[in-house]
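ok so I'm stuck.
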Amino acid sequence: MTKGSFIEMNCPIAQTLEQVGEWWTFVILRDAFCGASRFQEFQQRLGISTNVLTRRLARLVDSGIFTREPSETDARVVHYRLTPKGYALYPILTAMTMWGEQWVPHPDGARVKLIERATGAPIAGVHILSADGRALTPEEIDTVAGPAAAERTHALMRMREETINNDE
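replied:
not stuck anymore, here's the structure
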């Protein structure tokens, strides 16, 4: 495994971080979910250098999180559009937003509030749901190794099982 890369690690969290773990990625995604699509919009809103933004956007396109589409009105303008893979990151962004508001609050109050557009009511949050729709706590969820799991994952699952059994 090379320094700074998880490409060789057989772990879904590591592979997710390989694609979106760079620290500019989620603020770029935040702005995309808020309507930014052009390079200049991202650059102006974020204050990121053009060379760093170029690399980050190229990486997001290569990862299939954005597509790169020419403008219908001006061929010199390119729009970066979220793909279904990109949209699937929204719950993570929402969870990060809510976590940041709760655990790293601003002294003057909330920086953003997430509300349901149709009702104006605050959203309940991001939860892991059971098959019947109940919110589950981490203690109610079991993690088991799947068919592609490496021995390292099996060892981690054994350690988790031992910890749970010792706590009971």
